[in-house]
Amino acid sequence: MKFKILMCLSLSLLNVDAFAKAAKLNYVPGEILVKYKSSVSANNQKISIEREGHKRLARYNRGLVRVKLVSQTDMKQAILDFKNDPDVEYAQPNYIYKALAVPNDPRYGQLWGLKNTAQTITTAGGKDTPSSTNNPGVAGRDMQAEYAWNTITDCSSVTVAVLDTGINYNNSDLSSNMWNGGGSYPNHGYDYVDNDNDPMDLSGHGTHVAGTIGARGNNGVGSTGVCWRSSLMAVRVLGTTGSGTSAGIVAGIYFAVDNGAKVINMSLGGDSYDAAYSAAIDYAQNHGVLIVAAAGNDGTNNESLPMYPCNFTQANVICVAALTQNYSLASFSNYGTTSVDVGAPGVNIVSTWPGTNASVSDSLTSGWNFTSTAGSPWAYKSLNFGSPTACLVNPSNYNYSSARYVNNNDARAWKAFSISSSVAAATVNFYAMYDLENNADYVTINKKAGSGDPMSGGTVLDSFTGSTDGYALPQEYDLSSHIGSTVSVGFNLLTDSSGTDLGANISVFSIDTLTLNTTSYNVISGTSMAAPHVAGVAAMIFAYNPDYTYEEVAKSIKMGGTAQSSLTGKTVTGRSVSAVGALNYIQAPLGGAANILP
């Protein structure tokens, strides 16, 4: 089984109590504020206060009085006593407010999920461009991160494992926040794709996820994560093209747990129940480890079409849907009233990237070699998919409606490409549409070192049969083993004598490369981008109170969120994640016990 990447407030909006709690419940010792009813005279207010030996320090408009408590008075009891006075509307501590913590990172203004000012998200200099949907969004619709940062920005005591395509641990915004693996794991994790201790990201996805969790904040460089200081463990379980196996993912979970991770981010998914995978989730649960997972990007209901790990039922799994810049449920996001717990920002997310991408497109009009055993070779043809598109087709008169390929044919098309020695990764990308006699006729994709026919002595990368039902589907295959040399890539239509169908077309063909650096950023969308926002909050809570269990952390994330109409009937809680709300749902201990004022 393969798993694929799941990618594709102002103060007036907070009540006073929530804002106050964000400042660690800091208040002036021995002082409270008492609000008397409008019918109570100033003299009677003074009598009420002095009756218990307290002193009125100041009287403000509308019956609000600042009171100095008599020495040794228990503040909690004093507040309760005033609340029980029929002349009093409310009483509370005299809270201390601080300027909101704001990092000085130059890209912070583009991180709408942490601070939404209705900014327009623009390109981050990477290969991808932002979506125009709800861009700009609505000011204040964010995770309220600045309020949480007044309480905690340092999550480095909590290791977060990123099970993904790896992490560029040399990125200048990540290098100081990587997990210290000691002499055994000097590169901050492990690679279960190549089975070595170098989990370098050759795709981009994992580095982007890591930056959202814990890019170094307030260092004047790039962006910031939910956690300004963090401990990011790189566990590479997905390869250059973003796919991986059960074996790698299961091994990655055990590695993360055994090496001290408290949170595991899994922005990946598959549609099959997997007993070994479930057992690894159990292992994590038994060791108090929280797993944050992406809901999936098919726009479907996970109750009908499961997506794992979200559809595992263990209590240590939090499943996250993606929200747009106005906090509507993203059109691509999966949902589910029992399997998807919360929503978080997942569209137009700017974060770290492992390097620069380049793409060399092939025109599909010349340079290809064609052979056929039945006189019906592949051919060049322009097809209209909303606009004229150059394609390789078989049959040559392919029209995706009536023309049909021939029987007993071995039709081959191939071309050689040179890949620079300066790149770190290379892939071949194209779109494939086909209608083939199911389990009888096939199109295979092949590669071979050098410039010869890759169907002769080469490697089969994939094989198609059946139909794409009129859709051109994106395909991607790794060519990194041919860096610094020439590789031939080809397509082979193999038909038998039993029947025919409409044939196949290949379009939008390119060779894409990645050159590593330490300074790149990119903007992408997906539930993969929503999950690490939540993983960062989970790390923040564990760091805030190391005695919290995974159950308490999960509950605070789910129930400390903000109700969203777009998530009602779509998720378990109907809430979006709030960093400050999660921190405040379970209060931090003071002297070994929770300190909750009335």
Shape: elongated
Determine the mean pLDDT. Answer: 90
Main sheet: which strands, in order across?
A: 7-8-6-10-12-13-14-29-28
Radius of gyration: 29 Å
Most strands sheet: 9 strands, mixed
Overall structural class, as computed from helix and strand content, comes to alpha+beta
User: How many β strands by DSSP?
Assistant: 31
Helicity, as a percent range: 10-25%
Strand residue content: 25-35%
Measured between the Cα atoms of the first and last residue, the distance is: 53 Å
Tally of DSSP helical segments = 10
Provide key terms for this protein.
nine-stranded mixed beta sheet, 31 strands, alpha+beta, 10 helices, single chain, 598 residues, 17% helix, six-stranded antiparallel beta sheet
Structure explained in plain terms:
With 598 residues, the protein is an alpha+beta fold. The chain is built from 10 helices and 31 strands. The strands form 7 sheets. A 9-stranded mixed sheet has the order 7-8-6-10-12-13-14-29-28, with helices on both faces. α8 (527-544) packs across α9 (550-559) and α9 (550-559) packs across α10. The chain is elongated. Mean pLDDT is 90; it is low at 7-25 and 589-598.
Kindly summarize this structure in a few lines.
The chain is an alpha+beta fold. The relative contact order is 0.15.
Write the layout of secondary structure elements.
Layout: E1 2-5, H1 16-22, E2 27-36, H2 42-50, E3 55-59, E4 64-68, H3 75-83, E5 88-95, H4 145-149, E6 154-164, E7 189-191, H5 205-214, E8 229-236, E9 243-245, H6 246-258, E10 261-266, E11 268-269, H7 275-286, E12 290-294, E13 317-323, E14 342-345, E15 349-352, E16 355-361, E17 369-371, E18 379-384, E19 388-394, E20 410-418, E21 425-435, E22 442-449, E23 459-464, E24 473-478, E25 486-494, E26 503-516, E27 521-524, H8 527-544, H9 550-559, E28 562-563, E29 575-576, H10 579-585, E30 589-590, E31 593-594
Parallel strand pairs: 6-8, 6-10, 7-8, 10-12, 12-13, 13-14, 14-29
Antiparallel strand pairs: 1-9, 1-11, 2-4, 2-5, 3-4, 15-27, 16-26, 17-20, 18-19, 19-26, 20-25, 21-24, 21-26, 22-23, 22-25, 28-29, 30-31
